[in-house]
Amino acid sequence: MGDGSFSYSLTTFSKTGTLTQIDHALERVSRGRTSIGIRARNGVVIATDKKVPSVLVDSEAVSKIEMIHPSAGFVYSGMGPDYRVLVRAARKSAQRYRLQYQESQPVLQVVTHAASVMQEYTQSGGVRPFGVSLLVAGSDHNGPQLFQVDPSGAYFGWKATAIGKNYREARAFLDRRYNEEMELDDAVHTALLTLRENFEGELTQDNVEVGVVGQDGKFRTLTASEVRDYLEEAS
Predict the structure, then answer these.
(1) Which has the minimum average pLDDT: 9-23, 62-76, 126-140?
(2) Are 195 and 53 in contact (CB under 8 A)?
(3) Integer Cα distance of 5 and 16 in angstroms
(4) pLDDT category, 50, cuts 50, 70, 90?
(5) What angle do CA 156, 210, 164 make, to 5 degrees?
(6) pLDDT(8) > 90
């Protein structure tokens, strides 16, 4: 198999040491809607652009942030159908853990399970890598945590990061704004300001979605009215 840009080999390394299909998957992620994650002193926030392609689409039917268990949630950039597969697998893993140990699955185990599923799709014939990257927000005995999982199965812990379209510019903005002593409310404002920085059009409660892990360690998605209030405060 050649090393050209149209090489379809998944399980064979190119001469430069890369797996071309993983590079293509990362390119698909970089064309997806922007998602932001910030770990605050007392919680975690994940926020995402969910701008719909037509005014005829019901924005309330579009959801990019999903709860995995009461203390952890996902957001993605990339291909929505691939994301649904990972959410379903993560929820099954979390439920098995709950049934066995009678407690929520630790955040790192949620992350490593998702990463393992994604990695399996990089070394098997007849499949392709997942066309998504994930941001995982959660809290356990180690406190609030934020992770990123990429199509290769690699995962990283972050204080603040961005994935999807314009992620480089978003990370540069976060570099200037982030403070380790930041409270959760400030983190929500910063996440929205970061999304607004490169957003095409007006950022409203209808085209942005925000999830938080609060001081109580519980994950939830903010309501439209809560998002609207944060947007007004961040103006």
Answers:
(1) 9-23
(2) no
(3) 13
(4) confident
(5) 50
(6) no
Are 144 and 39 within 8 A, CB to CB? yes
Mean pLDDT computed over every residue of the chain:
92
Residue type, 116: S
Helices 167-177 and 184-197, packing angle to 10 deg: 140
Q: Alpha carbon 117 to chain centroid distance?
A: 16
Distance CA 177, CA 40 (A): 12
SS3 sequence of 79-90: CHHHHHHHHHHH
- pLDDT for residue 47 is more than 70: yes
Query: Do residues 218 and 70 make contact, with C-beta atoms less than 8 angstroms apart?
Result: yes
pLDDT at 58 over 50: yes
Nearest residue to 18 (alpha-carbon basis) of 93, 100, 129: 129
Q: What strand order describes the sheet that includes 43-49?
A: 160-163, 35-40, 43-49, 208-213, 219-221
Determine how many CB atoms are found less than 10 A away from the CB of residue 232.
9
Buried b / exposed e across 98-108, counting CB within 10 Å, b at 16+? eeeeeebbbbb
Q: For 216, list phi and psi in degrees, rounded to 5.
A: -80, 0
Is residue 31 within 8 A of residue 138, CB to CB? The reply is no
